[in-house]
Amino acid sequence: MPSVSERFEQCRSAQRCALIPFLTAGDPDLETTAAALKALDRHGADLIELGMPYSDPLADGPVIQAAATRALRKGTRLAAVLEMVQNLQLRTPLILFTYYNPIYHHGISNFLKAVATAGIKGLVIPDLPLEEAEPVLEETAALGVELTLLIAPTTSPERMQAIARASQGFIYLVSTTGVTGMRQEMASRVQDLIHTLRQITPKPIGVGFGISNPEQAHQVKVWGADAAIVGSAFVKRLSDPSQGLEAVASFCQALRTALDTP
């Protein structure tokens, strides 16, 4: 399986805007999560974010918060999630989305070694500031797991430069202030932010927080993003007990078609 950086290189060579769906591990259960990951792998995802359920998800909106609550009530824990991932045979690199507290609780080295052993290729920690990221960055570099850092609309140009230098794999550009969630319109300022980042770094730029339909995914591609990251819209579809897997596969294919449209 390629690394996160290698997958972005492949997409750039093919002039392809990457699609990065997000799922919450264990919602509605780990068996369904595994089936959904396989569906995304088959239907056009280039990378996949897998969210570890957490009791205080400050960056997440109501859809993902509710999914995390359901997963925790089911008893979803890191060891079971990593075991599930390790047993899958995906072509698509997985990025683990987790808050810092579970990493601290397990110990940075122990956590990252377990993640790497399971085959996880990337890591996003939304509540880890740049100033505290160095210990994690040092460990990930040695283990082949890339830590991607986030840039918000309120980030100053000087701080953007520092984050871009440190971020591994790609730059995660948050499209709006606030939490994750589906929105009717994408903030037009995203285009300016992508342009600003292009002057700062050659690293790929993925846009997330708020993309909820194929039209918005296509828009961020037109604005120059290297990837569209879609979370709540997938999580909401998978919550349907009867049609969730079919809805996830269909939605993934629709996003892929939109991103492939010139």
TrEMBL record:
Cited InterPro entries: Aldolase_TIM, RibuloseP-bd_barrel, Trp_synthase_alpha_AS, Trp_synthase_suA
Give the CC-aspect GO terms: cytosol
Q: What is this enzyme's class at the first EC digit?
A: lyase
**What is this protein's record name?**
Tryptophan synthase alpha chain
SUPFAM superfamilies xref list: Ribulose-phoshate binding barrel
Stored NCBIfam families:
trpA
PANTHER family, sorted: TRYPTOPHAN SYNTHASE ALPHA CHAIN, CHLOROPLASTIC, TRYPTOPHAN SYNTHASE, ALPHA CHAIN
Q: In which pathway does it act?
A: Amino-acid biosynthesis; L-tryptophan biosynthesis; L-tryptophan from chorismate: step 5/5
UniProt organism field: Parathermosynechococcus lividus PCC 6715
